[in-house]
Structures are given as structure tokens and as C-alpha cells.
């Protein structure tokens, strides 16, 4: 005797699966937005963080830059004086410092138990990490943009097109470095430990990126180290956009195109984001 098939019975499980998937996508998207917004709210509630983040770059630009300008003259790179050469590096310095240190919020949340509450929520670890990366990256870029007001003071002219491209490169740099900071913070238990590790990472990454001095005519071993530094491929395109007359980064006599440097930065950020998701999933 044939078994009667009731229409719609077999389709019900597939429909339930589809609805659960749509619900998961909605929850994860909402989680990314909330974590992202939380990072911006933390910045608004701590105005001293903005002041502290601007103090060191401005000190480098107007004290170190003005002091060495008369000594170096226009022999730095591309016929620009040292203070103008330093300006893109100062923008990158502000983004780099803020991006790496923004990951300290993860250690803060762990100490006060808020991280555990996020991890037990029915959302993916990737959504939490991506929200953290976007929030920290937005904060880092916001602090860097404030420094743009100093451009006319030192004689740097920015067109609308150059500013838009510079902003895009700063966003890419901030996102990649925040992802790297999350990798470090995901294994830190105490804020003091994170600050010590970041102090050991931040200064070499900054000084070996070309933000402070040109990378040409360096000793061979130092030239190799600077080209192994991922921050180098984020700083150089920003300088080439802000100061088009300056030569770009070279490897073996080949000048790397700006789009290639952007892809290297993007690849580094994607790898760090993947590692951060894996480590974040093991966090208790």
C-alpha cells in the first residue's frame, strides 16, 4: 500500500533551517554594530584619550620636525623639507598608536567580567572580533584626521581626491593593526602585561616603518628589517598620496605600486583577523 505524502511536511525542516540562518545573520550583524558603536562611545566619554593621543604626534611634528628642518633642509626625499616629510609619518604614527592600544579594551573587559558575558551570547566569535576591529579602527582614524588641520601650517596642500585616498589608506592601516592588537590582547590576562608587550612592539614597528626617517640609503641589514615590517607597507602609500613627489618603497630596485602596498596591508589584516577569531574562540 503506497504511503501518502502530506504536502509541506518535508519542506518544514528546510524552512526552519533557513529561518535560523537568517536569524543568526541578523544577530551577528547587530552584534558587529553594537560592539563598533561601543568603541566610539568609549572615545566620547574619555576626551583625555584624544588629547593624549595627539600630544606625541604634535610634539614630533612641531618640535622634532622644526628642530631638524634647518639641519636636513630639502635633502630628505623628493625635494620636500623634513617637516613636510614627517607629516604623513605623524598621521601614520597617530593611527598606529591608537590602533594597537585600542585592543586594551579586551583586557579591560576580561578583568571586569564583561568579556565572559559577550562570549556566552549566541553570536559568532567572528562578529565580536570584527566589531572590535571596526570600532578600534574608527577611533584610530578619527584621531589621525584631527592632525590634518596642521597640514596648511607646514605647507602641505591636500586636494579632495588625495584626502579621500589618504583616508581610505588610513582606514585600511587602522583595521589591520587593530586586528594585530586583538591577537596580542586575546592572550593577555592583565592590563599591565598588555601595556608592556605593546611598548615592546610599538616603538620598533614605528621607527622601522619609515614614518620618522627615509628608508633609502640605510645599512643593508636595516633595509631588510624595514621591509619585513608590515607597518612599512601602510606608511609608505600614505606618504606617496600626501606628497606625490616623494619616491616610493623599493625592493631590489623595483618600486612597489601603491595598490600593491594596500593589498599587502589588507592581507596582513585578514590574516591577523583570522588568527584573532581563532584565539578569541579559545578565550574563557
Key structural traits:
about 280 residues; mainly alpha; two-stranded antiparallel sheet; 11 helices; 2 strands; about 0% strand; globular
Overall mean confidence score, pLDDT: 81
Low-pLDDT segments, ≥5 res: none
* Principal-axis shape: globular
In percent, how much strand structure appears in the residues? under 5%
* Strand segment count: 2
**Share of helix, binned:** over 70%
Number of helices: 11
Strand line-up across the major sheet: 1-2
Describe the secondary-structure layout.
Blueprint: H1 11-45, H2 47-72, H3 82-102, H4 104-111, H5 114-119, H6 125-146, H7 160-185, H8 191-207, H9 220-228, H10 232-242, E1 250-251, E2 254-255, H11 258-282
How would you sum up this structure, described in words?
With 284 residues, the protein is mainly α. It has one domain. The chain is 73% helix and 1% strand. It has 11 helices and 2 strands. Strands 1-2 form a two-stranded antiparallel sheet. Helix 3 (82-102) crosses helix 10 (232-242) and helix 6 crosses helix 11 (258-282). The termini are far apart. The mean pLDDT is 81.
Outline:
With 284 residues, the protein is mainly α. Helices cover 73% and strands 1% of the residues.
